[in-house]
Amino acid sequence: MAANTKTSRKVARYAVPVAVAGVAAATVAMVPAFANAGGPDLPKVTAQQLIEKIAASDVQELSGTARITTDLGLPKIASGLLGGGGIAGGSAAPEDKVAQLANGTHTFRVAADGPDRQKLTFLDGKDEYSLIHNGNDVWGYDSKSNEVFHEKNAGDAADHGKAGDRLAASPQQLAQDVLKAAGPTTDIGVGDTAQVAGRDAYQLVLKPKQGGSTVGAIQIAVDAKNGVPLRVQLLSSQGGKPIVDAGFTKVDFAKPSADTFAFTAPKGAKVTEGSDEAGKGKAPEDKHWKALESFPGLDALTGGANGKGDVKVLGEGWATVAQIDTGAGKGLTDLEKSAKDKNAPKEAKQFMDSLGDKVTGTFGEGRIFSTRVVNALITDDGKVYVGAVTKDQLVKTANAAK
Q1: Among 175, 270, 292, 363, which is disulfide-ready with 398 (CB 3.0 to 4.6 Å)?
Q2: Domains in the chain: how many in total?
């Protein structure tokens, strides 16, 4: 694939349906577990003490089961782009699977033995998808398609972080990521106690100090004995069920057996070596992206393969909004006209149907692509404003930017 085509694909994924492409990365890193009714009676702790308890935890060995349920409020086209509710099927490359976690409910088994050995197995009915990091090797295996992805030298300094990122779905790492992102715009306190996966836990609660965020709070359940985060729950500022609800249903802190992380490609399996070959058009969502990328109206809005988009960060903390100026000189009106063309792909019409009613302000006119977490305002003059803020806050920010 030519470099300019890759650039076009990257811009298209971020500048227009950003509420689809960005949501996975923004929310899969915020995962909770399941608390029983009526929390245990535990000694009182402060938020600072609880954070220190997490930081001091030296637990590196565990195994268990967990579940992730994600309700982002995505329109139909977005669910298609994320590959539907099933995790099994299609390419075995990790990149093809991660985005699918941003849609529906997924159950998985997890095991860890220090920084060099981790395993996640996602269960989809009788089918499984396993991601294994064992020393210098990273394996991905899809039982439904009988395909294997293999990447060597994952233990090298340059690649070790990449392997860790792919397997960082454990509540421990996810909670650390959330705490690292918390800054002066966040109130941090201690909530009610809970019992998670049969273990007593404290709950650390993070809330935005500012108004206008789509996030109401993030709750992290912390094991009362060893400080391991067992839960992170992402709650909407609009109420209702959690946006993301996942975590341990069962956990054991004993050392997993060595053969847990052993993997040999099954006989007859198709093996793909190296990240350069990963996910070349085989993922369920790729056919949808390919159709959208061939849509001339979308190409005009993103500036095409040679577009030079300008991104500015507006606001701070929970109210941060990205302003993207594609430099194409064309915007929503051109996109709407192209979608009406008889040769336009059906995905283009579905994308247009997913946009909300028109909004106006000092920025001009536009329409909002809305989810429970991320909202994106696409204007008639070719700008895109996107952030984890409410529609009203998004319009307010766009007005102030003019």
Answers
A1: 363
A2: 2
